[in-house]
């Protein structure tokens, strides 16, 4: 059995809330390093085709997943299932750094459905 081709990207994308770097991508998964500026948050969103595991490396994350809101600290993690509305926020005063592991059949950025966004990016990707 042949091993799947792994692509190491390490390209950083800047967003109004911070940045993300794709560390590795292969069929069925993608690994990102996400940094969220203090006081900023990502859109309230969902994905049809992927789940996400978030591991906090530094800082504190306020995570919304459907109706649940929780604080996740350094060396803790949380899981976002497919089709769950979710949001990542940095309520702290230092940058929030997480590692995100996406799993699913389709991992494109256009699988984002935005419900609310501080930066006026509502709708698809």
TrEMBL record:
Biological processes, Gene Ontology terms: GDP-mannose biosynthetic process; polysaccharide metabolic process
InterPro entries: Man6P_isomerase-2_C (IPR001538), Mannose-6P_isomerase_type2 (IPR051161), RmlC-like_jellyroll (IPR014710), RmlC_Cupin_sf (IPR011051)
GO molecular function terms listed in the Swiss-Prot or TrEMBL record: isomerase activity; mannose-1-phosphate guanylyltransferase (GDP) activity; mannose-1-phosphate guanylyltransferase (GTP) activity
Pfam hit, one: MannoseP_isomer
Domain Mannose-6-phosphate isomerase type II C-terminal: start-end pairs: 10-117
PANTHER family assigned: MANNOSE-1-PHOSPHATE GUANYLYLTRANSFERASE (PTHR46390)
Record protein name field: Mannose-1-phosphate guanylyltransferase/mannose-6-phosphate isomerase
Organism from which the protein derives: Gloeobacter kilaueensis (strain ATCC BAA-2537 / CCAP 1431/1 / ULC 316 / JS1)
Higher taxonomy: Bacteria, Bacillati, Cyanobacteriota, Cyanophyceae, Gloeobacterales
